Amino acid sequence: MNMKVNLAGVTLNNPVMTASGTFGSGEEYSELVDLNRLGAVVTKGVANIPWAGNPTPRIAETYGGMINAIGLQNPGMDVFIKRDIPFLKKYDTKIIVNVCGKTTEDYIEVVERLSDEPVDMLEINISCPNVKEGGIAFGQDPKAVEAITREVKKYAKQPVIMKLSPNVTDITVMAKAAEAGGADVLSMINTLTGMKIDVNRRTFAVANKTGGLSGPAIKPIAVRMVYQAACAVKIPIIGMGGIMTAEDALEFILAGATAVSVGTANFVNPYATTEIIAGIEDYMLKYQVENISELIGAVR
Fold first, then answer.
1. Segments making up each domain of the chain, as ranges
2. Share of the chain above pLDDT 70, in %
3. Which end of the chain, N or C, is less surrounded by CB atoms within 10 Å?
4. Which of 20, 116, 143 shows the shortest CA–CA distance to 73?
């Protein structure tokens, strides 16, 4: 039984990875999860300088999910390179670094610094607000998606994954724009913009007023968007959005995802990733699937 998948020339032992921002950089989960079992660890967002993130409260539970407005708090790339990469190199798993920035130059600075580091792929988080364009996220304008993808590709030594925002009218337009800019892989979906109001305090549940909705509530939307993008582009897709079980992961794979990321589930069940891997193995045995590639995009 072959669980290996190929993402732009990078071979993962299996298609299951962590979603950025839900697993730190692996160390805090390493006592509970055997990182060697994971196809890849996707790190928390890394910026060129430390980011403080948003004011608190920054997280609120919702029906079937959660809203977060962390604001991509991170210690910056110097700490990441010195502390987190050496830790992850101890394990037989691929390292995917999530990169964030407020201008194109910010992204390029991180990508250039990582070009000589032993990381396998770069995931570019284009849901960051573009300060030069008045705060609209890079990922909500197809011209901006294509332009930033093209710029990042000029400087990247590793394959580039563009992480698409679902907060758009037509996801296929964004997928095609990233592909046109030279993206090697797409990852989708990032969180949907949501809001929760505390009726007793008569105020917003998170200080930022809005936040990113994740968890099982968004899964049907995510599966639909992955299917649409898989039909529109020729590059591989990493699917995510509310994956809690192996069955959830298989929905994304059958819809056209080559690999999947597990996010919010890690907060509820720290063993979710390895349980999902075992569940996919059981499914393949049950239905006599020799190679995971037989399942990718099998529903059309």
1. 5-294
2. 99
3. C
4. 20
